[in-house]
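quick one, two chains, predict together pls
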Amino acid sequence: MGKKIIVIDDSDIVREQLGSSLRGAGYDVVEAADGVEGAELIEQTPDCALVICDVNMPRKNGIELLEGMNGRLASLPILMLTTEGRPDLIDRARKAGAKGWLVKPIKADLILGVVRKLTA
Amino acid sequence: MNTVTLERLDAIVRAAAKSLFSSHGLTLGDDAHAASDPPSDHELSAAIGYASPRMHGAVVMTTRKDVVARTWPETLRGPGRPTERDVCSWAGELVNQLLGRIKNALVPFGLAMDQGTPTVVAGWHLHRVPASTAVARRYAFTSEAGLIFVYFDAALADGFVLDEPNEGLRSASEGDLQLF
């Protein structure tokens, strides 16, 4: 079984796009549709190798998710994947422990390259 | 709103729509005639709200389902895909990405905007009722698949203008990757 990746995004199409690319490359993918579900899934998945997380989502956004984990994610790489490009949000994510920020749209080759790097 | 501000806003929305659809395989052109004549065959509408201290409102897109289907991700195509539900979900993601591009282009003007989540409506003869906000712009685009209309509504703080952009405030662009 491949390394486990959590995908958190409120768009079912984006989750399917990411899931298709990642599963095709041998990864095991689990999904959450908002920040609340995502935080629960992270807690329930200790063998997770990477989290790919959207920013703008219902109930709890991706930045709030990161900041709410209070550093418990230090050993877990998180890649933010979003339409947002605001420097203040990128800085907040970096300070809260994110390992990368990628602005949509999704390009499978680029995503897989980053995933390999962050899970190496 | 002064003329320069309106021209800058128009240029930002038009560029955002064209670059968005181009990234999904559809080339858009401006349709000056259609801008005053809403089409009667639009059956899909996707809308998303935004807010900042100086400007808030919504972005709305209307078109036909087959136009949206043309931009459906290649990696997800297959027998029976996209379904009608796929097309509706994808329309929501498109308007989300459209607003993202508009927001990022407004960052150099000092605007940091929060956003809602997209809402999609399917029906017949959909057209947007004229908004009462200070700014209610409509943009019509041609494509090889059909017409796409984009509406940009904004309520503005007193004295709102888009001054010269501050390039020091540049946002990350679509496709940009930063590793920390």
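The mean pLDDT of chain A is 94.
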